[in-house]
Design brief:
Elements: H1 2-9, H2 18-29, H3 35-41, H4 47-52, H5 59-76, H6 78-87, H7 98-115, H8 120-132, H9 136-146, H10 152-165, H11 169-180, H12 187-194, H13 205-216, H14 219-222, H15 228-241, H16 245-252, H17 263-277, H18 284-295
Protein name: Peptidase M1 alanyl aminopeptidase C-terminal domain-containing protein
GO molecular function: zinc ion binding
Domain Peptidase M1 alanyl aminopeptidase C-terminal: 8-295
Length: 296
């Protein structure tokens, strides 16, 4: 993956190693391997994991390369992924045992790959999986697959899911987190709108962790090169500090690794930390974390 990141940074054409694709195909087609193992084996490392191994973290390159790999694998392994989704459907009552968990994990992982193609047939497949799901786990996984791509299908599914589960506090928190961690372009605007959602409460720490903390966990959105993610967090931290300084201090810690990024991002993150420190009436909790982050 790092060689592809280097290729992207040098504006070279990206291409997957055929042995890598063939290896994953063999794993997908295996009838002897445990399904949970297969699901984990074909799952790509997260963007954060990849950036942690870089001397200078490059969110844009990592996101572009990981997206390329996911879509290319989905394209080349489409038949195998479709077969895995089909063969791992179940209309039986929800069960929490190894076989059931493994079956759901494999089906949901394959569905996420397919939905990344954003093609009409796989979008319809994901929508059918969402509508026919007999439990929240599989319905949420189908929603996550659909929510990868901006558009009306995504918006309709998110609204439908909320309407069905709005009385379940934990599920609504997951719903917030799903949208907050999304990599769709300009997601900071969507998260800003969710601050005004009737189910969100800035006084509720878990809701804050789900929405604002979730947003900070999306490298491509939080570390947007225009600084919009940093600016959003800086403003929210000051607002939150007046309500719950302890939670606000946890949120400001998202800036603590600002020196790991390029000079442009460093300058933007540093400006927000300086803005926070200079704010009138700032709590000791936030001041201490912001100051330590600035000096790190």
């Amino acid at each position: 993956m790092f060689s592809l990141v280097a290729d992207f940074q040098q504006q070279k054409t990206l291409a997957l190693n055929t042995k890598f694709v063939d290896g994953l195909r063999a794993i997908l087609q295996s009838t002897s391997l445990d399904k949970e193992f297969i699901a984990k084996a074909i799952t790509l490392p997260g963007q954060g994991e990849i950036m942690d191994m870089m001397s200078i973290a490059d969110p844009d390159a990592v996101h572009a390369v990981r997206t390329f790999i996911k879509k290319e694998l989905a394209f080349q392994l489409k038949d195998d992924l479709l077969a895995a989704v089909t063969s791992n459907r179940s209309s039986e009552a929800y069960a929490f045992d190894h076989d059931s968990v493994a079956r759901r994990a494999l089906k949901n992982t394959c569905l996420a790959y397919l939905a990344s193609l954003n093609e009409p047939d796989v979008t319809e497949l994901a929508l059918n999986e969402y509508k026919s799901a007999t439990n929240m786990t599989e319905q949420f996984a189908a929603l996550a697959a659909l929510s990868q791509n901006p558009g009306q299908v995504r918006e309709d599914a998110l609204l439908d899911f909320y309407n069905k589960w709005q009385q379940d506090y934990l599920v609504v928190s997951k719903w917030f987190a799903l949208q907050a961690t999304s990599d769709i372009p300009g997601n900071v605007v969507n998260v800003q709108k969710l601050l005004a959602h009737p189910a969100f409460d800035m006084r509720n720490p878990n809701k804050v962790y789900s929405l604002i903390g979730g947003f900070c966990g999306s490298p491509v959105s939080f570390h947007a090169k225009d600084g919009s993610g940093y600016k959003f967090l800086g403003e929210v931290v000051l607002q939150l500090d007046k309500i719950n300084p302890q939670v606000a201090s946890r949120m400001v810690s998202a800036f603590s690794r600002w020196r790991r990024y390029d000079e442009t991002r460093q300058a933007l993150a540093k400006a927000q930390l300086e803005m926070i420190i200079s704010a009138n009436g700032l709590s000791e909790n936030v001041y201490e974390i912001a100051l330590k982050s600035l000096a790190a």
